[in-house]
Design goal:
The protein is mostly helical and 138 residues long. Helices cover 35% and strands 3% of the residues. The chain has 4 helices and 2 strands; from the N terminus they run H-H-H-E-E-H. The protein has a two-stranded parallel sheet with strand order 1-2. The mean pLDDT is 81.
Length: 138
């Protein structure tokens, strides 16, 4: 069971409140140290995954992937354009290094949807290693 940092939906209730309390505890007092990757703390995804295992509360069924993520190992999808990705509700972008094909796809989508919403200055993809010091050596 894996959680990636895209989009999670929870219904607000006491069970979920206890789950988020556990996530915060794990994140604020990690028992693992990821200094090369997360600058001395753990990633938020890891805190969510550990909380799932400890509480037995999961945000969705296994093998449900509503957001396309190029890191999930879908080799046959790597060179597809967003309009060719049926069955996904979102398009995840970012990472330490993102290839030009993926950056171009995202930038086109961002410009299109910003224009549709009458917004300006859409975010243009940058590799995380260009602005996060802890990522530069990875």
């Amino acid at each position: 069971y894996k959680i990636y940092g895209e989009f999670l939906y929870f219904k607000k209730n006491k069970t979920i409140a206890s789950y988020f309390k556990k996530v915060k505890e794990i994140y604020n007092s990690p028992k693992v140290f990821c200094h090369d990757f997360a600058n001395g703390s753990m990633t938020d995804e890891l805190a969510f995954q550990i909380a799932c295992m400890l509480t037995k509360i999961y945000p969705h069924q296994d093998d449900f992937t509503p957001v396309y993520n190029r890191f999930l190992g879908y080799a046959t999808l790597l060179r597809k354009y967003p309009f060719e990705l049926e069955g996904y509700y979102g398009y995840s972008i970012g990472g330490n290094r993102t290839d030009a094909f993926q950056k171009n796809n995202y930038n086109i989508l961002a410009k299109h949807y910003f224009a549709k919403l009458s917004l300006s200055n859409p975010y243009q993809v940058e590799d995380k290693r260009t602005f996060l010091p802890e990522r530069m050596k990875l």
